[in-house]
Amino acid sequence: MRTYRIPELAKKYVDYDMITTHTELPPFANARVRLLYTFLNYQESFNEVDAENIALAVYLVQLGMDTHDLIDAEPVRKVESRMRSRQLNVLAGDYFSSLFYELLASAGRTELISELSAAVCEVNRKKVNLYTKVLQSNLSSEDLFQSQVELNMELYLPLSSLLDQSYQHAWLKLLDEVSRCETAMIQLNNVLAVTSGAATNISAAHDLVTAQLQPSLDRIQQFILDLQDESLRKELYELIEPFVSILRLSKPAL
Fold first, then answer.
1. Out of 10, 13, 20, 231, which residue is the most buried by the measure of CB atoms under 10 Å away?
2. For the chain, what is the HEC assignment?
3. Which InterPro entries match (predicted)?
């Protein structure tokens, strides 16, 4: 199996001076995309090039949506540099999102264009509903976390149809758990970004990691142990290693 290299392939679309100088791109949804790539590679109907093209297209769609989420919606006029950054976030998000048309068409997967477009619309609809509930204070922290997990899964659910029936249960279960891990890490990074080093804030961040990341990793590891395919087990262990390392290092550090 070819080494996972989607982030490297994406660089030619992402590494433009205007974008990197004036915008702050979001963290890449690497685990979800790598999970997709791994499962596509285990389908007889896909070769490695097909798997890479589809995974790269999804990667760029996700990056486009996440870049749009960074846009400050406040109507107050800002200094010129911040206004330029905001404008470029809009344009960069649009640019990243548009690339999947070309990639999927060149891969001969035009049927996925409409499916991913519909999934993007559904993500945006659910985001609006979630933001409304947050503004109305109608969500507990547990409900908010679960809603964010579902949002992070939404784009990938239509791709289940590409997988053989024998892989779909494993795919959906792992997609759920990996999305939980990435959501926990997003929340952790948000907490740490606004702390000033206060011990109480750092302790809260540690509790967040332990309470949400650890259970998902436990379930993933148990699921991997039950798999019969040794090479698939190896791929999945490599996929979750960044989460395991963060959890391992965060306990003594925090």
1. 10
2. CCCCCHHHHHHHHHCCHHHHHHCCCCCCCHHHHHHHHHHHHCCCCCCHHHHHHHHHHHHHHHHHHHHHHCCCCCCCCCCHHHHHHHHHHHHHHHHHHHHHHHHHHHCCCCHHHHHHHHHHHHHHHHHHHHHHHHHCCCCCHHHHHHHHHHHHHHCCHHHHHHCCHHHHHHHHHHHHHHHHHHHHHHHHHHHHHHCCCCHHHHHHHHHHHHHHHHHHHHHHHHHHHHCCCHHHHHHHHHHHHHHHHHHHHHHHHC
3. HEPPP_synth_su1 (IPR009920)
Q: What CATH number has the domain spanning 1-159?
A: 1.20.120.1450
Q: Within 10 Å of residue 91's Cβ, how many Cβ atoms?
A: 14
Residue 217 to residues 54, 58, 173, 234, 253, Cα–Cα distance (Å): 26, 24, 12, 15, 19
Structure tokens at 31: 């685990």
The span from the CA of 158 to the CA of 90, in Å, is: 26
Confidence band for 223, pLDDT divided at 50, 70 and 90:
very high
Q: How far apart are CA 58 and CA 212, in angstroms?
A: 26
- Give the global pTM: 0.86
pLDDT tens digits, one per residue of 116-163: 999 999 999 999 899 888 888 878 888 989 999 999 999 999 999 999
Half-sphere exposure of residue 1, counting CA atoms within 13 Å on the CB side? Answer: 18
Tell me the residue type at 227: L
Q: How far is CA 175 from CA 86, 135, 145, 194, in A?
A: 32, 28, 15, 29
CA quadruple 29, 34, 35, 39: dihedral positive or negative? positive
